[in-house]
């Protein structure tokens, strides 16, 4: 138990003592982002992908109000299968702890807790960002501006306003590195239509940026590594555009707002594409877990 009331699981604690690489993983994609029953299987596969690339996975979440870094299989199963698991962003953490609930942490909350526990690399699917409807900007962005963690993602979902999200990351001082690309990926699609200023080709190059960021100490914030799917693996762009248009229409007609927006659109994609978006989603997460582990290995040596 740290003084922040974060409990680090035994395997993660042992790896940290030995200076071995650790990769943080979020639980919102498990509890709210992926459909059941595949979510639990995928959650385990993500951890396996991290191990296969030489790092120790630390899935983060809340059980009975306690923040855990490195859920064991029973805890992971509980967050994947229980009803009423709360979606926790940063502001929800103290309230949820006092209420002793079970909760899944978003990119923002996972980043903040990971850094508090001394972890510097994190793999997810896609970041939250600026939504297209009304005024809604994910806490993921401002939290990345303040939290020194490297987040490997496939950009942001095309359900968001991708251009506005990139502008906000610039305003907030968060560097975005294209991994093997100079185009920002749109999660299901390889290229969301925006140029990036910087790209890297290897995990070692990412580790060098992380080291420079720490050594300079000029801006204590995060780093986004945008890892696109290969073109051959993306969701058919036509199916994508049609599904997105339908989803946005349903959002309006069903009056969905706030933190329910992201899970609603994800569920719509999974249902409307009859699993095609799910297969793509799983590929993305596994690829990001692998890359994050290789970055963590490079950063630890
Ligand atoms: N992107 C995905 N799948 C997800 C999410 C984002 O591809 O499940 C989740 C992440 O946990 C992210 C959160 O932090 O949605 C953002 O939610 P909001 O827009 O309410 O901040
Ligand atoms: Mn929101």
Automatic annotation (TrEMBL):
UniProt catalytic activity: D-ribose 5-phosphate + uracil = psi-UMP + H2O
State the InterPro entries in the record: Indigdn_synthA-like, PsuG
The function of this protein is:
Catalyzes the reversible cleavage of pseudouridine 5'-phosphate (PsiMP) to ribose 5-phosphate and uracil. Functions biologically in the cleavage direction, as part of a pseudouridine degradation pathway.
Per the record, the similarity remark reads: Belongs to the pseudouridine-5'-phosphate glycosidase family.
Task: Enumerate the cofactors the protein uses.
Answer: Mn(2+)
A single Gene Ontology MF term assigned here is: hydrolase activity, acting on glycosyl bonds
Answer yes or no on keyword Manganese: yes
Q: Which Pfam families match?
A: Indigoidine_A (PF04227)
Protein name per its UniProtKB record: Pseudouridine-5'-phosphate glycosidase
Q: Quaternary form?
A: Homotrimer.
**Species whose genome carries this gene:** Phytohabitans kaempferiae
The positions annotated for binding substrate are 87, 107, 138-140
Identify which top EC class this enzyme belongs to. lyase
Q: How is the cofactor bound?
A: Binds 1 Mn(2+) ion per subunit.
For this protein, the Enzyme Commission number is: 4.2.1.70
Q: Which PANTHER family match?
A: CARBOHYDRATE KINASE PFKB DOMAIN-CONTAINING PROTEIN, ZGC:136858
What are the binding positions for Mn(2+) in this chain?
136
Catalytic residues, per the record, are: 26, 157
Which controlled-vocabulary keywords does the entry list?
Glycosidase, Hydrolase, Lyase, Manganese, Metal-binding
